[in-house]
Amino acid sequence: MTSLKLAAFAIDCPEPRRLAEFYGRLLGWEIDEAETDDDWVELADPAGGAPLAFQRDPGYRPPSWPSRDVPQMMHLDVRVTTLDEGHRRALEAGATQLPQPTDQQDAKFRVYADPDGHPFCMCACQ
């Protein structure tokens, strides 16, 4: 049996470098310039995992979450020690807080949008 390994997780967006810089601030990761061009930017995982990549899509339409008009195709969950820490890190990086689902008001996660409108969660999960 062949062993498979995730090569990258790619996110479509209109401006790859701008979105990579946002996630770099959020996660503390650096852009891998050797794997980057105008249409593809990679953030290197300092722990050695698969990179987070950003791919230019000139026709990109942001998700309309929580509405399903333009559904989210994916979202990232970022683990933090506390929700307060996650909130601070997300806003400092340039995220926008999104409405918490009404059935999840006491959940150990909060929902944000990156500068291109992709939802992501800051999770205080152990």
Protein model, in words:
The protein is of the alpha/beta class and 126 residues long. It folds into two domains: 1-60, Signal recognition particle alu RNA binding heterodimer, srp9/1 (2-Layer Sandwich); 62-126, Roll (2,3-Dihydroxybiphenyl 1,2-Dioxygenase, domain 1), CATH 3.10.180. Helix content is 18%, strand content 26%. The protein is built from two helices and eight strands; from the N terminus they run βαββββαβββ. Strand 2 and strand 3 (40-44) form a beta hairpin. The chain is globular, with a radius of gyration of 15 Å. The mean pLDDT is 93.
CATH class of the largest domain: Alpha Beta
Count of folded domains: 2
Sheet with most strands: strand arrangement: 1-4-3-2
CATH superfamily of the largest domain: 2,3-Dihydroxybiphenyl 1,2-Dioxygenase, domain 1
State the low-pLDDT regions, or none: none
Number of strands: 8
Helix content: 10-25%
General shape: globular
Mean pLDDT: 93
Radius of gyration: 15 Å
Main structural class:
alpha/beta
- The appropriate CATH architecture of the largest domain is Roll
The ordered string of helix (H) and strand (E) elements is EHEEEEHEEE
**Major sheet size, sense and barrel closure:** 4 strands, mixed
Tally of helical segments: 2
